[in-house]
Amino acid sequence: MDAVLLPKSWDVDQILDDLDQHGFAMIDDAYSAEYMHALVEECISHLNQFRDAAIQNGVVSNIRSDHILWIDEQLNFAQQHIHYLNALSTQLNQAFFLGIQEAEAHFACYNAGEFYALHRDNPQGKNGRIISTVYYLHENWHGDWGGELRLQDKNGRWHIIAPTPNRIAIFQSDLLHEVIQAKHQRLSITAWLRSGNPIW
């Protein structure tokens, strides 16, 4: 793959330091307004293809109620986001020897009343997920609309991360976290940086 330059807003040194110290990091104003708008339009134009999210082996569970669409080569703007994440993975591998080989990602839509209860993205280390990322791609968000990411860092402290537009949350996939019930439609791209093919 050709080298991909990360956006200037991605302070890699800060990301690496935050991940090392706390197990999570954030990037605000991640992309240009034009690119973010293109991502939002791409997501919204495919909402009729979203399906109920599953937790494992296609099993739909009552611990989550969001809807997703896996990102493939036909979703050009979302693919560019994955290219950036792959470039970040190279930096993470060099710093922490994580062995990340690929990224997998889907659009996620939480409609009003939907949530994702406490869980880990890599339970028992079985699915190869090492780093989780959430990019908030709605263009407006109000503080009373819910939908926050509640996360326990590697030191046992809890944090509330607001779904601020154009923000990327990055965290270790083994950390306990949840998505608080949304009161308004919340759009995002969830991606995992992983070591290889899942075993489920």
Automatic annotation (TrEMBL):
InterPro entries: HIF_prolyl_hydroxylases, Oxoglu/Fe-dep_dioxygenase_dom, Pro_4_hyd_alph, Pro_4_hyd_alph_FE2OG_OXY. Gene3D superfamilies: q2cbj1_9rhob like domain. Its cofactor is L-ascorbate. GO terms for biological process: cellular response to hypoxia. SMART domains: P4Hc. Residues 96-195 form the Fe2OG dioxygenase domain. Keywords: Dioxygenase, Iron, Metal-binding, Oxidoreductase, Vitamin C. The keyword Iron applies. It comes from the Bacteria. PROSITE patterns: FE2OG_OXY. GO terms for molecular function: ferrous iron binding; L-ascorbic acid binding; peptidyl-proline dioxygenase activity. PANTHER family: EGL NINE HOMOLOG-RELATED (PTHR12907), HIF PROLYL HYDROXYLASE, ISOFORM C (PTHR12907:SF26). This is Oxidoreductase. It comes from Acinetobacter pragensis.
